[in-house]
Amino acid sequence: GAVVSQHPSRVICKSGTSVKIECRSLDFQATTMFWYRQFPKQSLMLMATSNEGSKATYEQGVEKDKFLINHASLTLSTLTVTSAHPEDSSFYICSARESTDSNQPQHFGDGTRLSIL
Amino acid sequence: GQNIDQPTEMTATEGAIVQINCTYQTSGFNGLFWYQQHAGEAPTFLSYNVLDGLEEKGRFSSFLSRSKGYSYLLLKELQMKDSASYLCAVRDGVYGQNFVFGPGTRLSVLP
Question: How far does Cα A11 stand from its chain's mean position?
């Protein structure tokens, strides 16, 4: 089955640090990947749609200069949380769908738990 | 606007059957998905409906009525490991790529 790898799984760092999270589709190509944020006991909230070779599409209320997304290849998207602050602490999850079949579900990475001190 | 509703919490007994409902109002519809999410982990795919009716997959079944904007996930022969959150998601968007997630239902299975 389709596998999405997300790294790192956990980050603890000081306020003001920039953190990069990688999302890779291991056995399929994904022209589009999605980045979600999930606060405790809440559902997934879409942050942005990452498109290979073009700019990401951000959801309303998500600062594009704060959350930098780079989709450099058909198998890799990165999310960089710049100058992170404690309110950015959350569970970040990426997902991808096999490009050729629109009926396929999204497959999720294992998520990254970000804690900003 | 987009609106997906699910019960917040449910409790059931091991070995029993539980039905988790999902109602949706979205600007477009291109399929409804159910995901299971254990605490602290990423969601895993359970089922997919795009046409009306029942889809069965082992202990899990999912039903869709597009005219009513309604779906349910049926879990049979409940096991303790089924304690998790269950997320209903509707695929929307111009190209059907965007997913809108419901708030999730936290299911607790008791012995």
Answer: 14
Contact of B97 with chain A, judged by CB distance below 8 Å, is answered with: yes
| pLDDT tens-place string over residues B90-110 | 987 655 567 788 999 999 999
Note whether A108 contacts B31, CB cutoff 8 Å: no
Q: CB contact, 8 Å: B51 with chain A? A: no
Chain A, chain B: beta-carbon pairs less than 8 Å apart: 48
Say how far apart CA A44 and CA B6 lie, in whole Å.
14
Give mean pLDDT, residues B43-70. 94
Tokens 């309303």, residue? Answer: A60
